[in-house]
Specification:
This protein has 454 residues and is an all-alpha fold. The protein is built from 18 helices and no strands.
Length: 454
């Protein structure tokens, strides 16, 4: 059980105690070269007792060296070459995050300072070293913690690689978020098993670990807690691995259980987790270190890992069957839609063909009408020409008869009467011929759609 006291050790008091632990750690540095197993047990006790600020970087390097998990492979390129191999896209992403990484810390406050330059180089080098993961948001806080305590940049890079590979934090940054999904599942189940009432209360208001704990897991609380407290948690991450982060979450749930159960809305619960928890944990953390980190969660986490894998496999099979069924239904629907579209297009095609036939018929009728009209005009012109020739023949004949009559008729009186009669007959004949000609011309105009001018 956790203890409460009116006088809790603060980080300022802990810094006074650093001198008490320096000699102990110096002896452990020498011992680790001779007896690794003994050193590991002694280091565990020393970490619980406290890690001096001045040698924290060296302690982390020692713990990483004694770690049992496999580390990453040696880089294929020297560190400076890894930095140069980083892509422009990674460089832009890293630069965007530098100013948001510990902006109040003296080492990273200056955009042009040494701290930001080292941090940028380490992140660029890692993106070239681990091509599968590359660079992901959240990494900068882990690298920033390390570089605050490891002065040499290249040593900081090597320790950063060990942290991600040996302690399985690398999985949190893999593409597809498969690692972080597993961690959130494990966390949810741990809360369910250890603090069932809190788990059910949070579920009632749909407050899942993905809403309040994702940054805790991905950055080992570096984004939420004071810098020195985040460094103290990192002591135990190097000692115990990723389970140390889960132990801190369970500690948060334990000390906040009453307050969490008293909150009755989504907004209140989220605000409590993000705003109140950092202050609450800072006040009591160091005093309860032994209670927080003494329990072993490794067995539970392995079982939950297997459980998650089995559930995912079952879900994959179920999802495959569901996917195939859904795809079949989708194809049926698409086929039905295509058939309907074909029917509509066929109707439109038939309509277009009918319109085309009507247009061709109309065009043919117009063409035939124009041909008939032209034929009638030609016939009228021919008739006019024939009538004109006939009129000319009649005039000539009439003139011949007139001359003949003049020769045969006696006396002037008869001659004059005959002359007037001939003139009258000629006028009548000319008038009749002219009338026939005008009628023919009028008929010709009527065929062409015009009227004869007056």
């Amino acid at each position: 059980p956790l203890q409460e006291t009116d006088i809790l050790p603060t980080f300022d008091l802990l810094s006074v105690r650093d001198n008490e632990h320096l000699k102990r750690w110096e002896a452990l540095f020498e011992q680790s070269e001779i007896k690794a197993d003994q050193s590991r047990r002694d280091c565990e006790a020393a970490v619980f007792a406290g890690v001096p600020e001045s040698i924290r970087g060296s302690v982390w390097q020692l713990l990483a060296k004694l770690g049992r998990s496999e580390s990453g492979t040696d880089p294929l390129l020297p560190y400076p070459e890894l930095i140069k191999e980083a892509s422009p896209a990674v460089l832009n992403a890293v630069r965007l995050d530098l100013g948001r990484t510990f902006p109040m810390h003296p080492l990273y406050r200056d955009p042009c300072g040494t701290g930001q330059k080292k941090l940028c180089n380490v992140l660029l080098a890692y993106s070239s070293y681990d091509m599968e993961v590359g660079y992901c948001q959240g990494m900068s806080f882990l690298a920033g913690l390390i570089l605050a305590y490891v002065e040499e940049e290249e040593e900081g890079f090597a320790l950063f690689v060990d942290l991600l590979y040996k302690y399985q934090l690398r999985d949190n940054y893999k593409p597809g978020m498969s690692g972080i999904k597993l961690r959130l599942y494990q966390l949810s189940r741990l809360v369910h098993d250890h603090y069932f009432n809190v788990h059910e209360h949070l579920n009632t208001y749909e407050v899942t670990p993905s809403l309040y704990a994702i940054s805790w897991v991905m950055t080992a609380f570096a984004t939420q807690l004071p810098f020195q407290l985040a460094a103290r948690i990192m002591d135990f991450v190097f000692l115990q691995g990723i389970q140390a982060i889960f132990k801190v979450v369970l500690y948060i749930i334990e000390i906040s259980e009453k307050e969490i159960l008293a909150l009755r809305s989504f907004d209140e619960l989220i605000n409590y987790m993000k705003e109140v928890v950092p202050e609450k944990i800072s006040a009591s953390f160091e005093y309860n270190v032994k209670a927080i980190f003494s329990n072993d969660l490794s067995t539970e986490m392995r079982e939950l890992h297997i459980e998650y894998k089995v559930l995912n496999e079952d879900m994959a099979h179920a999802n495959k069957a569901e996917y195939l069924e859904t795809k079949y239904e989708l194809l049926k629907l698409q086929n039905k839609c295509h058939a309907h579209q074909i029917t509509l297009l066929n109707k439109e095609l038939q309509q277009c063909r009918a319109e085309k036939r009507a247009l061709l018929a109309e065009s043919e009728m117009r063409r035939r009408g124009e041909d008939v009209g032209e034929s009638l005009i030609v016939m009228r012109d021919k008739k006019i020409s024939e009538l004109a020739r006939e009129m000319e023949i009649l005039r000539n004949e009439n003139e011949s008869l007139r001359k003949q009559l003049r020769k045969e008729q006696p006396g002037e009186r008869w001659e004059s009467e005959i002359s007037r009669g001939n003139e009258k007959d000629t006028s009548i004949s000319d008038l009749q011929s002219q009338t026939n000609l005008e009628n023919l011309i009028q008929s010709n105009y009527n065929c062409s759609g015009s009227t004869l001018p007056g």
